[in-house]
Amino acid sequence: MDQRDPNFHRDGSDDRDALGREGEDLAAKHLQRLGYRIVGRRERVLRGDIDIVALDGRTVVFVEVRSRSDTRHGHPAETVGPVKQRRISELANAYIRRHRLQDCQVRIDVVTVLFGVGGEAPIIEHFENAFESP
């Protein structure tokens, strides 16, 4: 990326990364308000990241966060198609093996954050058990 690009930041991130991080922060706060306990953020597994690992009671919840600034290209949940679902499942299974959680109840949720235009509050949607892990 060119340093003259208005979206360029010295740390190598861009506005999309910043939007994603802000979405993850809002998602984590949303989950905490619901009583979830956040046990991990951006957990690195198999050369990939699990956005949020949380506990909902005794259930381990792997949360994929999808953020968008508008819906011109569809709702953020639409970006979690079959290929992404498989990848999230692979990462979750690797995390389960690494932390010896085979005997725990597990669920995969998706939280979407749609940032408002003109200062409107972001819209946060939480899809519990969004898809089954293969």
Give the secondary structure arrangement, pairings included.
Layout: H1 15-33, E1 37-45, E2 48-56, E3 59-68, H2 82-98, E4 105-114, E5 123-127
Parallel strand pairs: 3-4
Antiparallel strand pairs: 1-2, 2-3, 4-5
Please characterize this protein's 3D structure.
The protein is of the alpha+beta class and 134 residues long. It has one domain: Trna Endonuclease, Chain: A, domain 1 (3-Layer(aba) Sandwich). The chain has helices spanning 15-33, 82-98, and strands spanning 37-45, 48-56, 59-68, 105-114, 123-127. Strands 1-2-3-4-5 form a 5-stranded mixed beta sheet. Helix 2 (82-98) links the parallel strand 3 and strand 4. It is globular and about 45 Å long.
Name the strands of the widest sheet in spatial order. 1-2-3-4-5
**Largest sheet: number of strands, sense, barrel closure:** 5 strands, mixed
- Which architecture would the CATH scheme give at its second level? 3-Layer(aba) Sandwich
What helical percentage do the residues reach?
Answer: 25-40%
* Overall domain count: 1
Q: Tell me what portion of residues adopts beta-strand conformation.
A: 25-35%
Distance between the termini: 37 Å
Per DSSP, the total helix count is 2
C-alpha Rg (nearest Å) = 16 Å
- The parts where pLDDT drops under 50 for at least 5 residues are 1-13
User: What sequence of helices (H) and strands (E) makes up the elements?
Assistant: HEEEHEE
